[in-house]
Structure formats: C-alpha cells, structure tokens
Amino acid sequence: MKRIAIYPGTFDPITYGHLDIIKRGLTIFDSITVAIALDTPKQTLFSVEERLSLIQKVVRRMKNVEVKTFSGLLVQFAKRQHACAILRGLREVSDFEYEFQMALMNRRLSKRFETVFLMPNEKYTFLNSSIIRQVAQLGGDTSDFVPPEVTKALQYKFQSEK
Ligand code: ADP
Predict the structure, then answer these.
(1) Which of 91, 92, 145 to mutate to test the pocket of ligand 1 (most atoms within 8 A of CB)?
(2) Is 82 a catalytic residue?
(3) What does the pLDDT read at residue 161?
(4) What is the pLDDT of residues 58-76, one digit of tens each?
(5) What is the pLDDT of residues 129-149, one digit of tens each?
C-alpha cells in the first residue's frame, strides 16, 4: 500500500517554507498531495486557479507530489485520496495552539489519520505567506523566500494593482 500524506493549506502563495516541508515529507511518505482548501474564511490575494497553477509549476520537477483542491472536511478528502496521514508544518510555539486544536478535532472526526508535524529548516521559521504578500506589495525583494515563478506572479499582481 502506498503511503500518501495530504499537505493541506491556503498556500497564498507557496513559499520555500512550504517546499521544505514537502521535501521532508517525501522522506517519510511515498507521495504527498498538496491540497488547497477551498472552504477557507481567509481572504486570499491569489485565486484558487492561480495558487494551483503556481504550485504545479513549482513542484513540476519533484517526483511523487500531486496538487489538488478540496472543499468540505479535510478528513473526508483524505479518505477519498486513500491517505494515511495529514502533514503540517510547525514553525514556532505560536503555531502550536491552533495546530494542536485542528489535529485533535480531525482525530475526533476520523480515527484513521495521524497528523504529522515537521519542522522546516530554521531559516524558514519566520516565513509565512502573509509577510511575503506585504513585502511584495511594498516593492521588496521576495526572491530569497519564494521560487522565481512566485516572485514573478507577485510582481505582476501588485503592478497591475497600481
Ligand atoms: P493554513 O491557512 O492552513 O495555515 P498555510 O498555507 O498558511 O495554510 O500553511 C499550510 C501549512 O504549512 C501549515 O501547517 C503551516 O504551519 C505550514 N507552513 C507555512 N509556512 C511555513 C514555513 N515557513 N515553514 C514551515 N511550515 C510552514
């Protein structure tokens, strides 16, 4: 049986921190499905189609990584994908409370999945999509934090806003 992990999130946009977690995940699982949550209360900069296409471009040379969207409960999506685990990244203590709540709620909803937390390289622990959006909006250089395709998309997005 293939061991598939679902890596859910908003990915608005995908960063080197997310990619670090995917790469680490691939050392444990046979395959990772990056899953963009459609039912999120978050207002996003990039549309679902844009985020899907950006992630697809960024992971295209990686083996055993798929990109999908899902709506409804994560545990139901994971079941449909025949996954065995949910993968999440933990950067610092401030992530812990929310992640702990989600993992325990998901376990209440379905006992068949474990949530696995991985820590990124410490150089990415301060990195999140929201800070990247802010830096890009103010014209800062994001190239150390996101892949070139994402830097380009951010520049385009904020140029077309002006
Ligand atoms: P969500 O809205 O579900 O938090 P995100 O795209 O912000 O979606 O994050 C998805 C997952 O990736 C979360 O588990 C988050 O902790 C993790 N993550 C985000 N940025 C990083 C990073 N720089 N390093 C490691 N994990 C990260």
Answers:
(1) 91
(2) no
(3) 64
(4) 999 999 999 999 999 999 9
(5) 999 999 999 999 999 999 999
pLDDT exceeds cutoff 60 at 162: no
CA distances 122 to 91, 126, 131, Å, are 8, 8, 17
DSSP the chain: ---EEEEEE--TT--HHHHHHHHHHHTTSSEEEEEEESS-SS--SS-HHHHHHHHHHHHTTSTTEEEEEE-S-HHHHHHHTT-SEEEEE--SHHHHHHHHHHHHHHHHH-TT-EEEEEPPPGGGTT--HHHHHHHHHTT---TTTS-HHHHHHHHHHHHHH-
